[in-house]
């Protein structure tokens, strides 16, 4: 039994005449009569009464037509759903991200992606770099935004694209002596009570600070460990000390704070987007397209690499 048999039966029930039904279907009457007869043999019951007044469904035919109509509707819906999925309009995207990505990247990207793909279910997980890398390698995430490229077992199976550069800045409360200054030096920081990201959450940033200030620096050993950049800014506003974090945290100011450049400029690990190199998901492709449109620092070579990957 094929879909055309169902369409023929429904057309015949609607027009109540073999000739009119055949004309509506765009076929000759004899083939339609033969197909209906073949269908009745396959079903094992007479589906239509042929009378002088017209052709009408039998009780068996009425029962069959209810299911046939439903089956054709499901087939149509299946075709539509398959097309939407192939275009990345449905499905899900599991994204792991570091908190600082929410400062100036993710709000724009997620907003546009949500408007363009309202049928895609976003599953968002704030995670430290190490955790999101492990989850991505394990197949528990589709894409991750981390500080620095993924490292460790399985990282070689991932494709990583830098999507944001950053450098170190300091934030203080407006009552602090550094408030109002355009910059502070590294040597000045060594004598301050510092607020930094917890080493366990972002080891790449912690490594930069150890190199900058010295692994045994009293400023680091006595530093207040903050969960994320929002906590760093909040504690600085409270007068706890000098907060150190990525320059993108300037995008999240709060009353009673002042930001200073750290001199000489200290680069921090790039903000990096990673995904499985073998992933051909249309939803992922759609998300990467939004990333490309909103991250001008992704140079032509990297953009070309993404396009080649998605076209192969």
From TrEMBL:
User: Which residues does the UniProt record annotate as the domain HTH lysR-type?
Assistant: 1-58
Q: Does the keyword Mitochondrion apply?
A: no
Question: What's an example GO cellular component term for this entry?
Answer: protein-DNA complex
Write the record's keywords in alphabetical order, separated by commas.
Answer: DNA-binding, Transcription, Transcription regulation
Xref: SUPFAM superfamilies: Periplasmic binding protein-like II (SSF53850), Winged helix' DNA-binding domain (SSF46785)
For this UniProt entry, the molecular function terms from Gene Ontology, in alphabetical order, are: DNA binding; DNA-binding transcription factor activity
Q: Which Pfam families match?
A: HTH_1, LysR_substrate
Presence of keyword Transcription regulation: yes
State the family it belongs to. Belongs to the LysR transcriptional regulatory family.
What name has this protein been given in UniProt? LysR family transcriptional regulator
Species name: [Actinomadura] parvosata subsp. kistnae
């Amino acid at each position: 039994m094929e879909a055309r048999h169902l369409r023929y039966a429904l057309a015949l029930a609607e027009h109540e005449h073999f000739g009119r039904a055949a004309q509506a279907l765009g076929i000759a009457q004899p083939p339609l009569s033969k197909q209906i007869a073949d269908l009745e043999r396959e079903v094992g019951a007479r589906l239509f009464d042929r009378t002088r007044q017209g052709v009408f469904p039998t009780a068996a035919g009425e029962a069959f037509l209810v299911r046939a109509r439903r089956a054709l509707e499901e087939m149509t819906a299946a075709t539509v759903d398959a097309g939407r999925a192939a275009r990345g309009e449905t499905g899900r995207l599991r994204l792991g991200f570091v908190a600082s990505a929410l400062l100036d990247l993710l709000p724009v990207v997620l907003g546009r992606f949500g408007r363009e793909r309202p049928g895609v279910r976003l599953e968002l997980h704030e995670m430290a770099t190490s955790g999101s890398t492990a989850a991505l390698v394990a197949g528990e995430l589709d894409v991750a935004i981390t500080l620095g490229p993924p490292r460790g077992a399985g990282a070689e199976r991932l494709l990583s694209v830098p999507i944001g550069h950053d450098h170190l800045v300091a934030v203080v409360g407006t009552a602090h002596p550094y408030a109002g200054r355009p910059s502070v030096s590294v040597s000045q920081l060594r004598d301050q009570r510092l607020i930094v990201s917890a080493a366990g959450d972002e080891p790449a940033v912690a490594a930069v600070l150890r190199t900058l200030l010295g692994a045994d620096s009293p400023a680091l050993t006595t530093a207040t460990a903050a969960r994320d950049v929002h906590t760093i800014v909040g504690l600085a506003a409270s007068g706890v000390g000098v907060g150190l974090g990525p320059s993108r945290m300037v995008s999240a100011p709060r009353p009673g704070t002042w930001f200073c450049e750290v001199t000489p400029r200290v680069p921090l690990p790039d903000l990096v987007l990673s995904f499985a190199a073998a992933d051909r998901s249309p939803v992922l492709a759609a998300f990467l397209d939004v990333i490309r449109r909103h991250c001008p620092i992704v140079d032509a070579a990297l953009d070309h690499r993404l396009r080649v990957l998605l076209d192969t």
